[in-house]
Amino acid sequence: MPDKKLEITQVRSISGRPEPHRRTLRALGFTKNQQTRIHGDTPAIRGMIRQVSHLIRVRELEE
Q1: CATH architecture for residues 4-62
Q2: What is the C-alpha to C-alpha distance for residues 5 and 62, in angstroms, rounded to an integer?
């Protein structure tokens, strides 16, 4: 099975968002809007993505 990576880009601001959403974006490594981070495709990362899916864009990368 190939190692999958996820390219996650923050597309919406955290202004006015609940604290759990802010903490989740910080845990994903975001400090500013429009940043992109690459993470491994794990159940923990997928759970974080699901929680803040309205604030980010996700693209799967094959390696």
Answers
A1: 2-Layer Sandwich (3.30)
A2: 6
